[in-house]
Amino acid sequence: MTEPADPKIPGGALFFGNVNRVRTAVKELVTASDLPPRAVVLDLTASYRPGLPVLDTLAGLAEHLDHQGVDLHVARVRAGPTRSLSRHPLHATLSQDRLHPTVTDAVNALSDGWGRRDP
Predict the structure, then answer these.
(1) Model confidence over 11-67: pLDDT tens digits?
(2) What is the C-alpha radius of gyration for the chain, rounded to an integer number of angstroms?
(3) Phi, psi of 72 (to 5 degrees)
(4) 90-111: per-residue pLDDT in tens?
(5) Rounded to the nearest 5 degrees, what angle is found at the Cα of 107, between the Cα atoms of 72 and 15?
(6) Most exposed of 20, 37, 92, 116 (fewest Cβ within 10 Å)?
């Protein structure tokens, strides 16, 4: 397994004002990778209550990554976003095996084969 990257993506809470920059940065990093990544893990610690624009953008990102053969995983979703997320179509895309309590849990799950696409 390739070591997880720690790219320079805008930090802090995802909100309507920065979610497009994050989406663009993720797409560019995936495209520029020498070895195509199997998954992208977003840490949502700072995002207490993502609004509809954030969830819609993440859903679009998940779809884009899926077409590239890359799974979107989300870590550290707090109670507020969990309720918002459970009512959004993105929830069906992510499914339980792509939601993780911590980034470490996400990386460990991917290392163990969770979320691995069938060849």
Answers:
(1) 678 888 889 999 999 999 999 989 889 999 998 888 877 778 888 898 899 999 999
(2) 13
(3) -90, 125
(4) 777 777 788 888 989 999 999 8
(5) 45
(6) 92
Residue 38 DSSP class: S
| Cβ density class 45-63: b for 16+ within 10 Å, e for less | eebeebeeebbbbbbebbe
Max CA separation in the chain (angstroms):
37
Q: From the CB of residue 37, how many other CB atoms can be counted at a distance below 10 Å?
A: 19
The token pair that represents 24 in the structure block: 């663009």
pLDDT of the residue at 79 = 55
Q: 55: Cβ–Cβ under 8 A, 6 or more apart, which residues?
A: 84, 85, 88, 90
pLDDT band at 1 (very low <50, low <70, confident <90, very high): very low
**How many CB atoms lie under 10 A from the CB of residue 40?**
22
